[in-house]
TrEMBL record:
It holds the Pfam family Ank_2. SUPFAM superfamilies: Ankyrin repeat (SSF48403). InterPro entries: Ankyrin_rpt (IPR002110), Ankyrin_rpt-contain_sf (IPR036770), TAT_signal (IPR006311). It comes from Inhella crocodyli. This is Ankyrin repeat domain-containing protein. Signal peptide: none annotated.
Protein backbone atom coordinates (compact mmCIF):
# COMPACT_ATOMS: atom_id res chain seq x y z
CA UNK A 1 0.00 0.00 0.00
CA UNK A 2 1.51 3.39 -0.95
CA UNK A 3 2.48 5.68 1.90
CA UNK A 4 -0.14 8.34 1.03
CA UNK A 5 -2.88 5.67 1.05
CA UNK A 6 -1.66 4.38 4.43
CA UNK A 7 -1.79 7.90 5.85
CA UNK A 8 -5.28 8.44 4.46
CA UNK A 9 -6.44 5.17 6.00
CA UNK A 10 -4.77 6.01 9.32
CA UNK A 11 -6.39 9.45 9.34
CA UNK A 12 -9.80 7.95 8.65
CA UNK A 13 -9.37 5.37 11.42
CA UNK A 14 -8.19 8.00 13.91
CA UNK A 15 -11.11 10.30 13.03
CA UNK A 16 -13.52 7.36 13.44
CA UNK A 17 -11.96 6.41 16.79
CA UNK A 18 -12.21 9.97 18.06
CA UNK A 19 -15.86 10.08 17.02
CA UNK A 20 -16.47 6.75 18.73
CA UNK A 21 -14.92 7.95 21.99
CA UNK A 22 -16.77 11.25 21.84
CA UNK A 23 -19.98 9.42 21.01
CA UNK A 24 -20.13 8.31 24.62
CA UNK A 25 -20.54 11.94 25.62
CA UNK A 26 -24.18 13.05 25.48
CA UNK A 27 -24.29 16.21 23.38
CA UNK A 28 -27.06 17.72 25.49
CA UNK A 29 -24.98 17.58 28.68
CA UNK A 30 -23.55 20.87 29.97
CA UNK A 31 -19.89 21.47 29.12
CA UNK A 32 -18.96 21.21 32.82
CA UNK A 33 -20.05 17.56 33.02
CA UNK A 34 -17.79 14.79 31.78
CA UNK A 35 -18.45 11.07 31.80
CA UNK A 36 -16.17 9.31 34.28
CA UNK A 37 -14.11 7.49 31.62
CA UNK A 38 -13.14 10.80 30.00
CA UNK A 39 -12.43 12.54 33.31
CA UNK A 40 -10.25 9.60 34.39
CA UNK A 41 -8.28 9.97 31.14
CA UNK A 42 -7.49 13.56 32.08
CA UNK A 43 -9.94 15.35 29.80
CA UNK A 44 -11.50 18.53 31.15
CA UNK A 45 -14.73 20.46 30.68
CA UNK A 46 -12.75 22.73 28.34
CA UNK A 47 -12.01 19.73 26.11
CA UNK A 48 -15.74 18.97 26.13
CA UNK A 49 -16.61 22.53 25.09
CA UNK A 50 -14.11 22.23 22.23
CA UNK A 51 -15.63 18.93 21.09
CA UNK A 52 -19.03 20.61 21.00
CA UNK A 53 -17.70 23.64 19.07
CA UNK A 54 -19.15 25.77 21.88
CA UNK A 55 -17.14 28.98 21.62
CA UNK A 56 -19.21 30.74 24.29
CA UNK A 57 -18.52 27.91 26.77
CA UNK A 58 -14.82 27.94 25.85
CA UNK A 59 -14.62 31.66 26.58
CA UNK A 60 -16.65 31.35 29.80
CA UNK A 61 -14.59 28.43 31.14
CA UNK A 62 -11.27 30.19 30.47
CA UNK A 63 -12.55 33.44 32.00
CA UNK A 64 -13.61 31.42 35.07
CA UNK A 65 -10.07 30.07 35.42
CA UNK A 66 -10.07 26.79 33.49
CA UNK A 67 -6.47 26.00 32.55
CA UNK A 68 -6.37 26.54 28.80
CA UNK A 69 -3.36 24.29 28.20
CA UNK A 70 -4.23 21.40 30.57
CA UNK A 71 -3.38 18.17 28.79
CA UNK A 72 -5.05 14.77 29.07
CA UNK A 73 -3.04 11.75 30.13
CA UNK A 74 -2.07 11.33 26.45
CA UNK A 75 -0.88 14.94 26.27
CA UNK A 76 -3.91 16.15 24.32
CA UNK A 77 -4.60 19.80 25.09
CA UNK A 78 -7.84 21.55 24.16
CA UNK A 79 -5.94 23.06 21.21
CA UNK A 80 -4.94 19.56 20.04
CA UNK A 81 -8.62 18.58 20.27
CA UNK A 82 -9.65 21.63 18.26
CA UNK A 83 -7.01 20.83 15.63
CA UNK A 84 -8.67 17.45 15.03
CA UNK A 85 -11.90 19.07 13.87
CA UNK A 86 -12.62 20.66 10.47
CA UNK A 87 -14.39 23.67 12.02
CA UNK A 88 -11.77 26.26 13.03
CA UNK A 89 -13.94 28.40 15.35
CA UNK A 90 -13.00 26.64 18.61
CA UNK A 91 -9.35 26.62 17.59
CA UNK A 92 -9.41 30.34 16.81
CA UNK A 93 -11.11 31.05 20.15
CA UNK A 94 -8.44 29.10 22.05
CA UNK A 95 -5.65 30.90 20.20
CA UNK A 96 -7.26 34.28 20.92
CA UNK A 97 -7.48 33.31 24.60
CA UNK A 98 -3.76 32.50 24.73
CA UNK A 99 -3.45 28.75 24.11
CA UNK A 100 0.16 27.73 23.45
CA UNK A 101 0.74 26.58 19.87
CA UNK A 102 3.76 24.36 20.44
CA UNK A 103 2.72 22.08 23.31
CA UNK A 104 3.28 18.44 22.44
CA UNK A 105 1.32 15.25 23.03
CA UNK A 106 2.97 12.00 24.13
CA UNK A 107 4.19 11.43 20.55
CA UNK A 108 5.78 14.86 20.35
CA UNK A 109 3.07 16.22 18.06
CA UNK A 110 1.95 19.83 18.19
CA UNK A 111 -1.59 20.85 17.21
CA UNK A 112 -0.25 21.52 13.68
CA UNK A 113 0.82 17.85 13.43
CA UNK A 114 -2.59 16.73 14.65
CA UNK A 115 -4.38 18.91 12.09
CA UNK A 116 -2.18 17.59 9.28
CA UNK A 117 -2.42 13.93 10.29
CA UNK A 118 -5.89 13.44 11.78
CA UNK A 119 -8.23 16.24 10.68
CA UNK A 120 -10.46 15.04 7.82
CA UNK A 121 -10.64 18.57 6.33
CA UNK A 122 -7.55 20.30 7.70
CA UNK A 123 -7.02 23.29 5.41
CA UNK A 124 -8.83 26.02 7.44
CA UNK A 125 -7.36 24.75 10.70
CA UNK A 126 -3.83 24.60 9.29
CA UNK A 127 -4.23 28.10 7.87
CA UNK A 128 -5.36 29.39 11.30
CA UNK A 129 -2.47 27.69 13.10
CA UNK A 130 0.11 28.98 10.62
CA UNK A 131 -1.35 32.50 10.76
CA UNK A 132 -0.99 32.37 14.55
CA UNK A 133 2.68 31.39 14.24
CA UNK A 134 2.72 27.59 14.53
CA UNK A 135 6.10 26.09 13.62
CA UNK A 136 5.77 24.21 10.32
CA UNK A 137 9.31 22.87 10.83
CA UNK A 138 8.66 21.19 14.19
CA UNK A 139 9.82 17.58 14.44
CA UNK A 140 7.96 14.89 16.41
CA UNK A 141 9.64 12.10 18.36
CA UNK A 142 9.68 9.97 15.19
CA UNK A 143 11.66 12.59 13.27
CA UNK A 144 8.72 13.70 11.10
CA UNK A 145 7.46 17.20 10.30
CA UNK A 146 3.81 18.19 9.79
CA UNK A 147 4.38 18.25 6.02
CA UNK A 148 5.60 14.64 6.15
CA UNK A 149 2.55 13.34 8.03
CA UNK A 150 -0.15 15.23 6.16
CA UNK A 151 -2.35 13.28 3.76
CA UNK A 152 -4.58 15.92 2.12
CA UNK A 153 -2.80 17.45 -0.91
CA UNK A 154 -3.99 21.03 -0.27
CA UNK A 155 -2.88 20.80 3.36
CA UNK A 156 0.50 19.38 2.35
CA UNK A 157 0.97 22.30 -0.03
CA UNK A 158 0.24 24.78 2.77
CA UNK A 159 2.83 23.11 4.97
CA UNK A 160 5.51 22.75 2.31
CA UNK A 161 5.26 26.17 0.68
CA UNK A 162 5.23 29.20 2.98
CA UNK A 163 3.01 32.01 1.76
Amino acid sequence: MPQRARRAALGAVMAWALGWVLGFMPLAAPAQELPDHLARAGFTPLHAAVWRHDVAAIQRLVQQGAPIDRASDAGITPLHSAAMQPQPEALRALIALGAKLELRDRHGRTPLFVAAEVNPEPQAVIEALLAAGADRGAVDRFGKTPAQVCWKPAACDLLRHPA
